[in-house]
Amino acid sequence: MYGHRLWAAPGTFEEADIDFMTEPFGDADHMRASWACYQLAAGTRQTREFPRLLEKVPTRTLLLYGPEDHVIVEDFVSRCEIAFENGVGPIVIPGAGHCLQWERADLFNELLARFLSDLRTRRRAS
User: Fold this and answer.
1) How far apart are CA 4 and CA 54, in angstroms?
2) Which of 108, 111, 110 has its CA nearest to residue 97?
3) N or C: the chain end with fewer CB closer than 10 Å?
């Protein structure tokens, strides 16, 4: 699933990794639930509330992107820059795709620790 569909950098995942990542989607209900965010974005999922796709996000957000993910639209990074008013990034993680937290845990964990540390420091100061 992850290699041949261009979600990850070539050779990133071994068969056991793929089994681990796909196991949560082994039954129809879980698979359908995993598609919800994509269906909302595409306008194909019914909901009682209109998706808030055109609103800017004021929450401070760490924006990360794996360029080996060929599933995400080409203008994803520029969309993030517009949508997240208080975004940190977008930061492009080289050698990573859709699962950058797994493919490049070394960079992901360091960036996340620094981002969260900054939030803790700000909280203590207020």
Assistant:
1) 33
2) 108
3) C
CB of 87 closer than 8 Å to CB of 64: no
Give domain status of residue 10, yes or no: no
Whether the model pTM is above 0.70? no
What are the tokens at 88? 């940190």
* 3 belongs to a structural domain: no
Kindly calculate the radius of gyration of the chain based on its CA atoms and give it in whole angstroms. 17
Range of the domain at 54: 15-125
Phi-psi region of 89 (alpha: psi -120 to 50; beta: other; left: phi over 0): left
CB 69 within 8 A of CB 7: yes
Cα-flanking dihedrals φ and ψ of residue 104, to 5°? -130, 55
Average pLDDT (11-24) is 81
Count of structural domains within the chain: 1
